[in-house]
Design a protein that fits this description.
Helices cover 31% and strands 16% of the residues. By secondary structure, it is of the alpha+beta class. The chain has a six-stranded antiparallel beta sheet with strand order 1-2-3-4-6-5.
């Protein structure tokens, strides 16, 4: 396939806007029911509430100089915060679950901050990874959720070894 053919196909799939930037077209498919995914990930993460501080306000994980909102986020956010730190007086983010528009995100900061935690992730779970500490899901997958629960436990152990647990 020639370069022009590839470019033409990309333009057909993504569309073009001025300046050569790509813009996605509106999602035409059926939106998945994400409530069960959020509920299951939240249930699994809540097993660690005993040593972390629960928050539903996403700005609680912000630095002191960042914008802070007193209102809790909608019912689609659940976070666990570790021990307070000079950069994060409300506590450092350990993990969180957030329902987005098209998927549910599971954030696990030890996967980013602790080198040994993310080692050995299966190729299936790695496909769900966006960036270094975020996993996106559109349906409940017990096998991947079990692996994520194990990863979360390893992250908890790493936080405990550094004294970063909230209690």
């Amino acid at each position: 396939m020639t370069r022009d053919a590839v470019t033409r196909d990309a333009v057909t799939l993504w569309g073009r806007v001025s300046g050569g930037c790509r813009a996605r077209r509106a999602y035409a498919g059926v939106m998945p029911d994400l409530a069960p995914v959020f509920a299951e990930l939240r249930r699994r993460l809540s097993a660690h509430e005993d040593v972390f501080t629960v928050s539903t306000n996403i700005t609680d994980a912000n630095r002191p100089v960042s914008r802070k909102v007193d209102d809790a986020s909608p019912g689609d956010t659940y976070m666990l915060l570790g021990a307070p730190h000079e950069k994060y007086p409300d506590g450092m983010l350990f993990a969180g679950v957030k329902q987005q528009k098209r998927y549910v995100s599971y954030y696990l900061m030890p996967a980013y901050t602790e080198a040994g935690v993310a080692g050995g992730i299966s190729p299936e779970l790695r496909k769900r990874m966006q960036g270094k500490s975020c996993f996106n899901f559109t349906r409940v997958d017990e096998g991947l959720f079990d692996e994520l629960a194990d990863l979360t436990s390893r992250g908890r152990d790493a936080y405990a070894s550094k004294g970063w647990l909230a209690r």
